[in-house]
Fold each of these.
Amino acid sequence: MSETSVQAGSLPKAPGSLSMIVVMTAVATACGLLIVTAFQATKNAIEHNVATITQESVLEILPDATRQIPFGVDKSGAVVREPAADADVSKIYAGYDESGALAGIAIEGSGQGWNELKILYAYAPDRQCIFGFKVLECRETPGVGDKIATQEEFLANFKELDATLDPGTRAPEHPIVTVKHGTKKDKWEIDAISGATISSKAVGRILQDSTTRLLPAITGHLDEIRKAGAE
Amino acid sequence: MSESSSNRNLQVFLNGIWKENPVFVQVLGMCPTLAVTNSVRNAIAMGISTMFVLVMSSMLVAMVRKVVPKQVRIATYILIISTFVTIVDYLIKAVSIPVYKALGPFIALIVVNCIILGRAEAFASKNTVYRSVLDAVGMGVGFCIALLCLGGVRELLGSGSFLGVPIFGPYFEPWVIFLLPSGGFFTLGAWLLVFSLLKERKARRAAQEQSA
């Protein structure tokens, strides 16, 4: 390089911090606006699709049910029939067979694995057990964590998972818990997937929280829920 | 527009499809290429999603190329790319939840697909909006073709069907390995071999013509 080319003034002047901040802010604002517009434009279609998939999933995990009625459990433990879409409630779906008898209750639960996890499980109030399970939303590591949705051995945990409530306190007698693969002894334990312990534990945690919080409220309003099927 | 300029633009478009195919020649974007090509439907969905992000981000990068200081260009490109990935995420969810579930985290991972950042940095930041969009469409089509090549073979051999329609009849025993990750590597290896053979044959012919 010649001496003259490096003289002051011959090099391109570096932009000041202010111009960088202004450009980044402008681009970020434009990007933010684009995202909000896309969110608003697709919101209704997404809600409709999610509702359809949830309905199908409810009838899938409650095999004897031919129709379902949505309910919501609010923070005080009150059960609301057909809550508004944006109501701050935990969603449950009562499934009824052709004669109008209660065929089970599908309960939505969510929590954190590696990413957010949304599940649906079937609860039989008469047998006091969980007898069905489906993953609604899962962004766990493909081929590892996402086995919670597909691995038959893991799904077998939910064929008759004990969720008995104490008759006095109505709290679960034994909180549902995930145990290390191959060490399951009791009916309320979930046998984890080897190599996907975090995701398996997340499922156990979601079920434990959900059953502890919702089952007392559901069993307390069971007559109401049963009557709705006969209408 | 002069003829030579039209030819140059056509060349920009065709480069991504054949000569500089992002998968078979540049061997970029291997993560989605191997992960979601176990069926033609998934391959099409991923191909179109990536093409959308590629075209839109190339267009925006070309538009702002003169005002973005060099020091913050990569951060700006990432911001633009992640915006369109978020939009694609919403769009797929609005169109089909089963497809959204099948693609899973790979939709979000489009943001780190090196084809997109590579084209933003290597082409869109130095060319006009028109040429950048042409380049992005070419690369996107090339990527879609590559995913279809893989998805087609894997679904055909792994499930005995194409786009869910059974092809070989009830007596065909599916080669399940082609639906597994290892099947993705086998199929990609086979396609890379085909491309290498074609390239070698072309070079041999060119050498023969030169010597003649």
Note: The mean pLDDT of chain B is 90.
Amino acid sequence: MSEGMSLEHDWFPRPLPANVTIGERSWWYSSFACLHYRSRKPHGVRVGRDSGIYHGTFFELGPDGEVEIGDYCTLVGAIICTNSRVVIRDYTFIAHEVIIADRFAAQPLAEPGGPVPVGGGPSEIVIGENAWIGARAILLSGATIGEGAIVGAAAFVDFPVPPYAVVAGNPGRLVGRTR
Amino acid sequence: MNADELNDIVGGWDPAGLPTNIRVGAGCFLERKESFKRFRSRRNPGLALGDRVKVYTWTEFNVEPTGLVEVGDDSTLVGAVFMCAERIRIGKRVIVSYNVTIADCDFHPRDPDVRKADAMANAPQGDRSRRPVLEARPVVIEDDVWVGIGAILLKGVHIGRGARIGPGAVVTRSVLAEGAVLGNPARAVEFLELRSGKRRRS
């Protein structure tokens, strides 16, 4: 993991990894978000413009993990733990204590020099444009959230959610539509 | 942030400074010193970690003076919040994922009148000696159990060897060996393949 830029406002005394890029006018609270970051992909985390990555957000990426975040997204404390790919498209809100992971008993993916724990779904997780993920929701491999959909607070989703659907509960169920 | 403050949150601190009734096995990784801030056990040991146990930043050992937490070799505690009044025992090779709570006691009485008295005794300037005696029932998690993201395990549950606790499950009853549970309250599911997308909404 080579070193990238340092954030001016950062309290955590480490630079961001070199394969993290942040678009114009976007906010990233601290390099602490990369406490357990091991991505060796060309673009470990890419954040578009006008997006906010706020306190409590963590990118727990294994060597093959990568996250792409679009424009005008707001993440206020999600933990993304994957050795695969997570895509969060434009205008998405992700509330507090949400976990997005490639396995149900997720853990930080390999300490330096250690092996990556086995398991993990290979499929990428995609959160469509203009989606809204409620507090404490859990999204696992198999979850693809359609454009404009809502995932209710504390819902558990590991299946495709159609565009403009509303899902809630554990296990998650379709409970309505947004249009 | 100075070097000591950094070490305190990235596993660079010396566990020799922990209370003497905390036993730490060989090759453990203890990331954040604050995980032990609310450890108040007067038992010896009050916390016993086996060899090669990993304790990540979100874990908290909230252990009352009467409590004992034991964790077996090669277990991983990612975000395990322990609320322990008597005994919580975790076996070997157990994974406890993010945002998990494990409590062996409800910590407040069920009866509303007694609970009101507890609220007063528990006030910032309250008389803690007037707190009621609370029933605790130990929690046991056997070897090779995986506790999924966001699960809550409540007092008295026994989780059998190799069981799988689904994400967000609220576990109020024991789970058989090799069993799998999901939901709130947690119910047995026939085959919890939480990664394949086989379990569909129905």
Note: The mean pLDDT of chain B is 93.
Amino acid sequence: MSLRHILTVFFKQGKDIMRNRTILIQFVLFPVLAAIMEYSVKPEELPEHFFIYMFAAMYFVMAPLTGMSAVIAEEKEKNTLRVLLMADVTPAEYLAGTGGCIFLAGMAGSCMFAVCGGFSGGKLAWFLLMMAAGTAVSLVAGAAIGVWSRNQTSAASLSVPVMMVFSFLPMLSMFNEAVGRAAKYAYSQQIYRLMAEGSSAAKGETGIVLAGNFLAVFLIFRYVCGRQQRGSKKSANR
Amino acid sequence: MVNAIELREITHYFDGKMVLDHISLNVGKGEILGLLGPSGAGKTTLIRILTGQLAQTSGTAYLSGIETGKHAGKTRRNAGGASGRAGAPLTGMMTDDCGLYERFSAYENLHLFARIYNVPRSRIEEILRAVGLWEARNTAVSKLSKGMRQRLSFARAVLAGPQILFLDEPSCGLDPQTAAEIHGLIRQQKQAGVTVFLTTHNMQEATKLCDHTALLNGGVIVEYGPPEEICRRYHHQKKLLLRLSGGENVVLPHTKEAAETVADYLRREQIDTIHSTEPDLETVFMELTGRRIDQ
């Protein structure tokens, strides 16, 4: 692994995100929506920072997942990824650079949530830690979808249902008990609960669910990468 | 002396169908080899095998004596390059679809790869000026014409001073003037000692540029050699074509009797143009395969 290659891809991706409005808007829209709702709608029956946590849960699923899958799929579709790999950037270096950049963009948005919520000290650290964990899982899921997809259209058609399921589970589980029972096995639900209720809400099953989710997504990612590598070595567009 | 490119019995199957059939050829250092063939002949597959993007079913390929596939990384770097710069890549490639970052400017596209190859910034200016894109350096690629994109793609391929340059359909879809500019750039690389392996289905391009051409059809090399020599080999029916001042065309055989007829026309100042009818590569390809190359 070359650090120069990773940093080059990282800065390239940063510059590209700033110019790609469809990606950029996702990292900005959710924190802005959360701020508007937090300051304009304050029903007394809802818990404190309800909208911050709700939108943050949607954000850490949607933004990194769609961002990562869209970026990889676009590079594949426009053949820029092939050119990068031909220039001796390894797939691992590319994923580290791109993933690192999207993770950082995700955490920048997370900081905006924290500012809106007025978090500080231990609460701030806990919130950002949870956001980082959620972003990491979504990032790997997005990478798997991006690597699997041939183009941006197929990436979107795969990532939309996945992100809809995981991002809306925390909200839906409040209205339906059956959904709530299923949702507790999803990382988004567990992280939402940990954010809203604090570290004291962490139980043994929380760690198992989070680790299980991360492992499952990682194994899917590994499988997809292996499949892609075998496929690209065998096939060719003449 | 080690050949720049050496192919030994390269065979490749795709979905059970043979795409390349025991391809063997050598390209000497500093030569331009043109691989000609219609769409689907296997040209891009061969380039992908040579550049380590695809593993052949059987056979071996060497770039400057290094086996591709097994040592794909080595064939892409640390060779010294034609530029003589340590760490320069052995190969550079210009793909048929450019593969440029459209939201980036011409300069930013090259800067990205300059950082990857660890090439100094001064080289970016040098190469952008060489391909005539310095004035358009800050223009986003999405706003560049196809010819400018092709030139930028070429600039990226030669940025780090590779020893071997792979060009996949370098002038495909370009107007004659832009194609001529690309040809000029290719010749400059040859003069700098770079070996060029190009695929094309443009016979004129191959005839003008290449030291050797290989005609590929259905995964088989049906003819190989310098373009003029190939044409001479198939010069079976030697004829002269005369266009007379009245607009009439006269075809004469290469015989003593015909010489008298030509002299007679000349004396009477009736000849507008006179041509010999030796075959071009297109004719040779048709004779060998029974199909046109652009089919």
Note: Chain A touches chain B at residues 4-5, 8, 12, 15-16, 19-20, 78-80, 82-89, 232-238 (CB under 8 Å).
